Every structure is written in C-alpha cells, then in structure tokens.
Amino acid sequence: MQQQISVITLGVDDLERSRVFYVDGFGWKPVFENAEIVFYQMNGFVFGTWLGMALAADMIRKNERHPAPFALAHNVASQGEVQPLIDRLVASGGRLLRNGDAPEHGGFRGYVEDPDGHAWEIAWNPAWPIDEDGHVTFAT
C-alpha cells in the first residue's frame, strides 16, 4: 500500500478566526472556502479547517474536545526563520507554547497553538532537507 496522506482536516470553532491564523500567520492561500470549511493546497496533500460541529456530524461522532496530544509540524529552511514565524503566528491569533530553542537531538524548534488549540511545531532541522516544492525528506 502507498504511504501517503491526502487530506488533513482540523475542526475549528470560528472559521474566520482560523482563516486569519493560517492566511496571515503562515501566508497560505485558500483554494476553496464556504461557510463551513476552508481548504489549502499543500505540497502533496490538502489541508482543511472545518467548523468542528459540522466535522463531528460528518464523522457521526460526538464533538470531543480533547483527543490525545499531537503536533503538526511546519519546517523552515533556516534556523533564523523559526522565531519570526512563531511571532507572526502569535500576532495572527495563535498562542505561544514554547519559544524557539535547540533541543538535545539537534536543530531548532518552538511551538504555537492555533486559535482552536491545535499545536504546531515550527522547526528547522539541518538533517531534513526541504526541496524547492516544499517536500521534507527524512534523512537517515
């Protein structure tokens, strides 16, 4: 079976507040949006934010607010890009979880939450190159 992810969709409480975070913070451009959902074309998959109650209804699931901890990651090309992006995300409605610093395993990273509590790691890892299409490769 092919190892791939085609869509990641996060449930949000306020679509416009979420849109500000992703458009103004990350600088992403929506490819589709309506009153319930915004889709962004990423490098090889689609990322979506959908009103949480509508997403829960689509899954036939209670709107459970606290799944197991997880983090999405956005890698950048240089260490110097980490903190400015974290700062821009916070200015766009995010909440700082951890300023950029160097973990023991190398690289440089920090964490910010989107307005709905989804954690994002903003990271630079010299061992994980990013190609011109934005694809990250796990280096062994």
- Main sheet record: 4 strands, mixed
Strand residues, percent: 25-35%
Order of helices and strands: EHEEEHEHEEE
Report the count of strand segments.
8
The number of domains is 1
For CATH, the homologous superfamily is named as 2,3-Dihydroxybiphenyl 1,2-Dioxygenase, domain 1
- The CATH topology assignment is 2,3-Dihydroxybiphenyl 1,2-Dioxygenase, domain 1
Percent helix: 10-25%
The CATH level-2 architecture is identified as Roll
Please describe what this structure looks like:
By secondary structure, the chain is of the alpha/beta class. The protein has a single domain, classed as 2,3-Dihydroxybiphenyl 1,2-Dioxygenase, domain 1, CATH 3.10.180. 21% of the residues lie in helices and 32% in strands. The chain is built from three helices and eight strands. It has a four-stranded mixed β-sheet with strand order 1-4-3-2. A four-stranded mixed β-sheet has the order 5-8-7-6, covered by helices on one side. The longest helix is centred in the first third of the chain and has 12 residues, at 15-26. The radius of gyration is 16 Å and the shape is globular. It starts with 6 loop residues before the first strand and ends in a 16-residue tail after the last strand. The mean pLDDT is 92.
